[in-house]
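Now for one record.
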Amino acid sequence: MAYKKSRINSLSSRRIKKLKGDGIFQELFIQYGVVLLLYLGLFFSTLVSWIGMPMSGVSPFWTAIIIFTWSVRWPETLPSTLIFFIGLLTDIFTGAPIGVHAFSLLTLAFLARLQQRFLNSQHFIAVWIDFVVLAFLFIFLIGGLSLVVFEQYNAILALLTGSLWSWLLLVIIFPPLSFITSLLISIAKDKNESF
């Protein structure tokens, strides 16, 4: 009789361990799946930015929102080399001077990371205002550097108008895109801290 009880207990403990093992697999899948989803979001936002709106001359760089939010919320998982390559590929595919987007994106990420502690303790409106200022710097840095490199000073009015509309669209789309990015980051960070 004692043999049957010990055998039942050992079988039960093996099943419990197996279930716990499955839970760990699910947790890892969720954690890495969310991080993969973040990287895919970064990739697709970059593709959408490359397509732009060619008829209007307005092409907001949606990736700037994700890079800003990611740099504020979880900068350890967004390497500067990735930001640099995204900027470099953007320059190649959009015909911008080589290095303009890379430099601008790295500047945006650097300034966001500098303010990370402050912005993480602030209300969303303060983060949005900070993005408004940094996006303005980002858009006009790209426009100004492109203007200087291409030496097309006669197109300054068109550049300013297109840059202003691009900036305005970035500011308007920031809340939902930042919310989704922040939500994914918080899920990934929670799963990461549980291990």
About this structure: The chain is about 85% helix and 0% strand. The longest helix spans residues 2-51. Residues 53 and 59 are 6 Å apart (CA to CA). Confidence is low (pLDDT under 50) at residues 3-20.
